[in-house]
Amino acid sequence: MQDDGNLVLYKPTGEPVWASDTDGSGADQLKIQADGNAVLYQTPAGTPKWATGTGGRPAGPSFAGASQLPAGGTLLSGSYLRSPDGRFALVLQDDGNLLLMGPAFHPIWASSTSGHPSGRLIMQEDGNLVLYDPGGAYWSSRTAGTDASRLEIQDDANAVLYGPSGALWATNTVDRT
User: Fold this and answer.
1) What is the CATH class of 68-170?
2) How confident is the model over 106-157, as pLDDT tens digits?
3) What residues are paired with 71 via a beta bridge?
4) For residue 53, which phi and psi values (nearest 5 degrees)?
5) Using an 8 Å Cβ cutoff, are 107 and 127 in contact?
6) pLDDT tens, 76-98?
7) How many Cα atoms are found within 13 Å in the side-chain-facing hemisphere of 143?
8) What residue spans define the domains of the chain?
9) C-alpha to C-alpha distance for 17 and 30, rounded to whole angstroms
10) Rounded distance, CA 12 to CA 133, Å?
């Protein structure tokens, strides 16, 4: 972080490789935020001067660290489940779209259901995984009547519904990153 407000990455030889091009901006602090965005701020006012635009990790209520949604469990809009190793997240966006995200918040799978604000994902007791908005159900795994008892986000980039009989539904995204 240079005194002129420019963030610059240099080679060991001293040659610049990349710069934020914020010289003269007054930026004097780089923060890596909880949402995954890196932002240059001018302190003490806290004025943002530049950002990577890589935010996307939902804030608010979440199953932070949980990799499973058990039968009867609900995932609220803006919440997520994470794989045990933390590399993958199943995110219920505020617009009602359910996304399986990989490293650096790269989308791997989507329910393609945006346009349903105030959504919630419910692992129903009947074995069906269902997205609801205030108007009712708008997507499901079509596994009602099975013995599915949990949704699991795995370290292999797959989201799977399991029951005593085994896997009953999956995003089929194994090793897709």
Assistant:
1) mainly beta
2) 899 999 999 988 889 999 999 999 999 999 999 999 999 999 999 999 999 9
3) none
4) 75, 25
5) no
6) 888 889 999 888 999 999 899 99
7) 27
8) 8-51, 68-170
9) 18
10) 54
User: In this structure, what DSSP letter does residue 141 have?
Assistant: -
**Residue whose token pair is 């209520």:** 61
**Which whole-number Å values give the CA distances from 141 to 43, 50, 70, 171, in the listed order?**
48, 41, 15, 10
Q: In terms of pTM, does the model score above 0.70?
A: no
Query: What is the torsional sign of CA 65, 67, 70, 75?
Result: positive
The whole-number pLDDT of residue 135 equals 92
Distance between CA atoms of residues 90 and 152, nearest Å: 10
| CA–CA separation, 62 and 76 (whole Å) | 8
Q: Which two tokens stand for residue 152?
A: 């699991």
Q: What are phi and psi of 107, to 5 degrees?
A: -65, 130
CB 138 within 8 A of CB 96: yes
Q: What is the pLDDT of residues 22-72, one digit of tens each?
A: 999 999 998 877 667 788 988 877 888 988 877 665 444 334 458 999 999
For 32, list phi and psi in degrees, rounded to 5.
-95, 110
